[in-house]
Design goal:
The complex is a heterodimer of chains A (about 450) and B (about 525). With about 450 residues, chain A is mainly alpha-helical. Helix content of chain A is about 60%, strand content about 5%. Classes of the chains: A mainly alpha (about 450), B mainly beta (about 525). Chains A and B meet through helix 8 and helix 9 of A and strand 2, strand 3 and strand 34 of B.
Chain lengths: ~450, ~525
């Protein structure tokens, strides 16, 4: 709590003391705060130890195992620099959180750690032990602070309603119950149809779990409105946010990725064969259609909107605002996060992702030196990994679940020969040579591409 | 290679469940659930790997019946479909093929002594099923095939795709005293099949599918009068694709030369095709004498040779590579051709490997020591085979030799069983091929035959690296390039398998961690 308060004070100072920034020429990534990192990890560790110590009952060992997995996962997020601890963005997010919590004083903010995650997935997560991670992949798609507030209210509701821990307890209670264990023993003794019976048990368990998940989501939505109505945020944005989430699997920039435009040079023209697709594909059957609804973790957004509509109308206030903390900060973070995602993908060796997001953003901001450089850097890294037969470590293989545009890029990367990759990097950077000569990373990438292409 | 792949995967499944057992004291679903991997392999279309299948026994239904799950993966190892069905306890999945609109899975049912061809559409629904009761010889053949495995996983042995129309199967059969073959067509468009069963009086014949154009399929038939006979006759048989009737049959001889066909290449827009293979002088024995070089014939659907071209070791290859008076390549010995094919720019490539018969110090020592001890050694021959370098011949679209390249590798000595010292080197080369003693691994064709990759293994004994390596020769955009992957890693075992065009699949097994890593890597 003390820690959060400190941040909130700091926030005011920073928010009002920083002059409005004009557009930066070169992107600079957020620098994480090492001491804050350490403090957070120590708080997470304390909470974990406390949680483990408080476990009772015959199933405590199994619950402790799951808690440990969760603890390791959170630590890993810090270790891989996925969590943003830079003051500026952290303060902003916590300022929104304090608008919610200050107006809902019955809910304590101690043990809460609300942080941005550099993940590109459009998601936010309540870990159940006080950590709430707001992915920048979701934030940069949102339109206003009220939508951010709704997402936070939803995740806070999960925390206060103890959904994650209840889910863990429920699972352990079921799976390690005498009844369930007896059922497994009986199946184990069967001479025939053992796996069929097990599959039926597993499916039943999964359906039950997903049913609970959907119920938890509905409860979190309802409570989110109760929390949000006490703030000055515009509660109608809860519905626009859900509508946006419905399309969250689509990219922020909904434009086609025109690879022919990016990689067509007079001395090295684009080849159609690079994006040829003749892979083995099964048409979508109706095998699982009857089960699809039962397997969903979340109810459909359309249903969630319908469920919330009447309450939203009831709770709508005339003086509510879309922005309370700072509209300019919201917008500058949104822009910064477009780059931050690319930068994090680069650093965490998700090179095909970094290339994809760079190319997409280049279609909006074609003259950006950082993006142009990143494309070259990605291609150079792909060249070097392919040369050493380690390409699979930095690029994904095309998958039917991938977004169409991303899959097209992945297919192209699969079809390119080593020399073609070198050529693409070289010609891509060469066309911008004069403009970006003063940007050191560009020159470095360009020189590397020359070396790879023997120019 | 396939057998090892299956074994390792089975091991992975067992280990997975072992780990589950040690991790939990109470029962869990994972602990009780167990599946057995029966077969796995590649799904092939037109010599290109399009995906993989894993055939699991997923449950026992009753005394005689099992439940099976046929898992289909695409070429990027993504799971596409699980097909579940019940069947006899003794069925094996032999091969699979894809023809652009349908998949076929060829099952061998040992209980019913039957081959079952099951066709599936791209919704994963079974469309047609064709069964074939086997005679004793075919049964023996199919019982052996799963155990033999296939070291060239980019090629099928029995079932081949006919684009969007169906599949051709070529299987050996026995009719009375005749050992012959049977060709069947199984339509994927409608329930339709035809059968071609040649009348071969008193002969021992075996057929090898060479390829197809729009109207005929072509097989090469090797036959001899007696099973023990050393004389082998090569015949080309053309079969009408629509009705299964014989279109032509001809001995592979022309202008006093015999050809041993290895591949055909359809010529787009024409009822003509190319036949390629090594050739021999007319009085040579195809399987026992050294080849004189390479032959390319242009033929029509009636089996008429329209034009022919011969590239000889002595007159043509010698312009690029030094040969001796016996037609042997200097330092390399004789050449065994592994693969011969045409790319879409009209060029023809032949991938071969050198071999020599030399004296075996081990065999001689064993024989001498045995004689001193008063016995005549029955173990190792006094001769051994030395597998030498790789060779690539490149012909232009007019079938003129335009390049011949030798790819150096460390010699590989193969000791021979006693008594084999009297066999000629060419017969011994066939023995090497049968036992997988050549270093050649596989050839995979690129999309629409625009490119190819041929791979071979080598055990390097250099200063910087000592261990097994995989080498590739690639052809792309008219250029030949080479690449090398060192196969010595931290893994306890590493296997390299052919994959989709331009890639290989590396499977690393880490014994200590009980882990298998599968990664697809591109070849440069």
């Amino acid at each position: 709590m003390i820690f959060l308060k400190k941040i909130f004070f700091l926030l005011f100072f920073i928010t009002f003391s920083i002059p409005s920034t004009s557009q930066q020429l070169f992107f600079t990534a957020f620098k994480d705060d090492a001491s804050l990192n350490q403090n957070l990890l120590s708080a997470i560790n304390k909470r974990y130890e406390k949680d483990i110590a408080s476990l009772t009952g015959k199933n405590k060992k199994y619950i402790a195992d799951i808690y440990k997995e969760r603890f390791e996962l959170i630590k890993e997020n810090f270790k891989t620099s996925e969590i943003i601890t830079a003051a500026d963005p952290s303060n902003y997010l916590n300022a929104i959180a304090s608008e919610i919590l200050n107006n809902n004083p019955e809910y304590k903010s101690e043990n809460l750690r609300i942080l941005f995650s550099r993940s590109f997935y459009a998601n936010a997560t309540s870990m159940g032990e006080g950590s709430i991670f707001f992915n920048i992949g979701l934030f940069h798609r949102l339109q206003n602070e009220s939508q951010v507030a709704f997402v936070l209210c939803h995740e806070l509701a999960h925390y206060y309603l103890n959904h994650v821990n209840d889910n863990i307890n429920q699972y352990v209670k079921t799976v390690y119950s005498d009844e369930f264990q007896q059922k497994l023993k009986n199946i184990q003794k069967l001479a025939y149809l053992q796996n069929n019976q097990l599959e039926a048990v597993a499916t039943n368990l999964l359906f039950k779990n997903r049913r609970h998940s959907r119920a938890f989501e509905q409860a979190a939505d309802s409570m989110a409105l109760e929390l949000m109505k006490n703030t000055n945020y515009d509660i109608r944005e809860a519905l626009t946010c859900l509508a946006l989430l419905d399309s969250a699997d689509k990219d922020k920039y909904n434009e086609d990725l025109i690879l022919e435009k990016h990689f067509n040079f007079s001395l090295f023209p684009f080849k159609k064969s690079w994006i040829e697709n003749d892979e083995l594909v099964f048409n979508k059957g109706d095998d699982n259609e009857t089960h699809n609804d039962s397997l969903k973790t979340h109810p459909d957004c359309a249903k969630r909107i319908t469920d919330l509509k009447s309450k939203v109308v009831e709770y709508t206030k005339k003086n509510s605002k879309k922005f309370i903390v700072s509209e300019s900060k919201f917008n500058s973070l949104k822009n910064q996060y477009d780059y931050e995602i690319i930068n994090h993908c680069m650093k965490s060796n998700k090179i095909s992702r970094a290339l994809y997001y760079s190319l997409q953003l280049l279609q909006i901001i074609p003259d950006d030196p950082y993006l142009n450089t990143t494309v070259g850097q990605c291609l150079n890294q792909i060249y070097s990994s392919q040369k050493n037969h380690r390409l699979s470590e930095i690029i994904e293989l095309p998958n039917p679940g991938h977004d169409k545009k991303y899959k097209l890029l992945l297919m192209m990367l699969q079809n390119l020969r080593l020399r073609e990759i070198a050529a693409l990097s070289y010609y891509f950077l060469q066309q911008r040579e004069k403009e970006f000569v003063s940007f050191a990373p560009f020159t470095e990438a360009y020189n590397q591409s020359k070396q790879n292409f023997n120019q | 290679m396939k057998v090892q792949f299956i074994k390792l995967l089975s091991l992975a499944i067992i280990l997975f469940f072992t780990l589950q057992v040690s991790a939990q004291s109470k029962l869990s679903i994972d602990k009780v659930y167990s599946v057995t991997l029966r077969n796995s392999g590649s799904i092939i279309e037109n010599e290109e790997i399009k995906g993989y299948y894993f055939f699991y026994q997923s449950d026992k239904i009753d005394k005689r019946t099992n439940e099976y799950t046929l898992q289909v993966l695409d070429a990027n190892l993504n799971k596409l479909k699980d097909i579940k069905f019940q069947d006899s306890k003794k069925i094996y999945l032999m091969e699979s093929s894809y023809n652009g609109s349908s998949l076929v899975f060829m099952f061998f049912d040992e209980d019913q002594n039957m081959i079952d061809y099951r066709l599936y559409n791209m919704e994963g629904k079974k469309t047609y099923s064709y069964s074939k009761i086997l005679d004793r010889r075919s049964e023996a053949y199919f019982k052996n095939v799963p155990r033999l495995g296939n070291d060239e996983e980019a090629e099928n042995q029995s079932i081949y795709d006919i684009a969007n129309k169906g599949f051709i199967s070529v299987i050996p059969i026995r009719e009375g005293k005749n050992f012959t073959y049977e060709i069947n067509f199984y339509s994927s468009e409608k329930r339709k099949t035809w059968n071609f069963n040649p009348y071969e009086d008193g002969k021992f014949s075996q057929a090898q599918y060479l390829g197809t154009n729009d109207s005929i399929i072509v097989v090469e038939v090797l036959s001899k009068a007696k099973l023990t006979s050393k004389e082998m006759e090569s015949t080309l048989v053309g079969i009408n694709l629509t009705n299964g009737r014989k279109a032509f049959e001809m001995q592979t001889q022309e202008r006093g030369r015999k050809m041993y066909p290895m591949n055909i290449s359809a010529i787009n827009g024409k009822n003509e095709y190319l036949i390629m293979g090594p050739y021999f002088e007319s009085d040579d024995r195809v399987l026992q004498d050294k080849s004189e070089g390479l032959a390319v014939w242009t033929m029509n659907n009636s089996g008429k040779i329209l034009s022919s071209k011969y590239i000889s070791w002595a007159n043509d290859v010698s312009k690029y590579i030094k040969t001796d008076f016996k037609g042997r390549l200097a330092d390399m010995g004789y050449v065994y051709f592994h693969h011969l094919f045409q790319t879409d720019d009209g060029k023809i490539f032949a991938i071969g490997e050198g071999y020599k018969k030399t004296a075996s110090a081990l065999g001689i020592a064993t024989t001498v020591l045995g004689a001193m001890a008063g016995s005549y050694g029955r173990g190792v021959s006094t001769a051994k085979m030395k597998v030498t370098d790789m060779i690539l011949l490149q012909l232009n679209d007019k079938f003129v030799l335009e390049n011949a390249v030798i790819y150096d590798k460390y010699n590989n000595n193969v000791e021979l069983p006693a008594g084999y010292e009297f066999q000629n080197p060419h017969t011994l080369a066939l023995l090497l091929k049968t036992h997988g003693s050549f270093d050649y691994a596989f050839t995979q064709m690129g999309k629409n035959k625009r490119s190819f990759i041929s791979g071979y293994k080598d055990f390097e004994k250099g200063k910087d690296y000592r261990g097994l390596t995989f080498h590739s020769i690639s052809y792309h955009d008219g250029q030949l390039t080479r690449d090398k992957i060192n196969l010595k890693t931290n893994a306890s075992k590493l296997h390299l398998l052919p994959a989709k065009p331009g890639s290989v699949l590396l499977m690393e097994y880490f014994k200590k961690e009980r882990r298998i890593d599968l990664r697809m890597e591109k070849i440069n």
